[in-house]
């Protein structure tokens, strides 16, 4: 038997539907960006996996299994966005301070937490399009920041879309990207060795345009930073 995909109910979803997620987003934006959009993604996943070997896989497993296959690009995109959008909303709560383990890990990889905040904010504001900005932990426990464009995934460079080729880049950077892709060609099903996302901000336009308008990403980022569930971040560390 196969399972039908559905949008999971968030812990505080009823409150969010009535009040939004103050100060981050209004109830109208929450309904559009979570309820309506996540239901749409789940419906597309159900339709596209019907009677296939992917039908019993989680969205994460589908991402890993399809990332290297051009003929599965549409399925990859829907699975990746399903996972990424849920990861973002599942990490939101009324603000709490970073816990000691997270704070120490951030200070070991960045000068201080303000540097991390400025770094993520700068990348988010510079993205002229849709995507996510991630705080990731490498297999060697180093924290770093990376962006994925559109439906890109943080779990593997084979389909990460973590580099905007419309921006200036060096030949050595391009060579490194190509080499990383070649190194992963025989590791399609490998989970070990992939980065661990700790946190992300969703910068798809429907997340902030209605509430903040064009040019309002800085305010959106600030309110997101004050709405992070640091308990979830620590659990992923």
Automatic annotation (TrEMBL):
SUPFAM superfamilies: Fe,Mn superoxide dismutase (SOD), C-terminal domain, Fe,Mn superoxide dismutase (SOD), N-terminal domain. InterPro entries: Mn/Fe_SOD_C, Mn/Fe_SOD_N_sf, SOD_C_sf. Gene3D superfamilies: Iron/manganese superoxide dismutase, C-terminal domain (3.55.40.20). Residues 102-155, 191-236 form the Manganese/iron superoxide dismutase C-terminal domain. One of its GO terms (molecular function) is metal ion binding. It holds the Pfam family Sod_Fe_C. Component of the mitochondrial ribosome (mitoribosome), a dedicated translation machinery responsible for the synthesis of mitochondrial genome-encoded proteins, including at least some of the essential transmembrane subunits of the mitochondrial respiratory chain. The mitoribosomes are attached to the mitochondrial inner membrane and translation products are cotranslationally integrated into the membrane. This is Manganese/iron superoxide dismutase C-terminal domain-containing protein. It comes from Lipomyces starkeyi NRRL Y-11557.
């Amino acid at each position: 038997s196969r399972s039908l995909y559905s949008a999971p109910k968030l812990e505080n979803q009823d409150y969010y539907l009535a009040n939004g997620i103050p100060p981050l987003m209004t109830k109208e934006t929450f309904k559009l960006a979570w309820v309506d959009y996540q239901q749409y993604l789940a419906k597309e996943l159900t339709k596209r996996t019907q009677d296939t070997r992917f039908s019993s896989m989680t969205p994460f497993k589908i991402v890993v299994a399809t990332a290297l296959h051009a003929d599965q690009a549409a399925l990859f995109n829907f699975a990746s966005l399903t996972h990424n959008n849920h990861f973002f909303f599942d990490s939101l709560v009324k603000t709490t301070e970073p816990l000691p383990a997270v704070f120490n890990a951030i200070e070991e990889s960045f000068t201080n937490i303000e540097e991390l905040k400025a770094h993520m904010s700068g990348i988010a504001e510079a993205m002229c399009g849709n995507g996510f900005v991630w705080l990731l932990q490498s297999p060697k426990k180093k924290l770093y920041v990376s962006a994925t464009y559109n439906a890109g995934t943080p779990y593997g460079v084979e389909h990460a879309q973590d580099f905007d080729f419309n921006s200036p880049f060096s030949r050595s950077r391009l060579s490194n990207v190509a080499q990383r892709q070649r190194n992963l060609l025989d590791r399609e099903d490998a989970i070990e060795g992939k980065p661990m996302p700790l946190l992300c901000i969703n910068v798809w336009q429907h997340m902030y345009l209605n509430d903040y308008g064009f040019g309002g990403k800085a305010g959106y980022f600030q309110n997101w930073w004050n709405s992070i569930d640091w308990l979830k971040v620590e659990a992923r560390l």
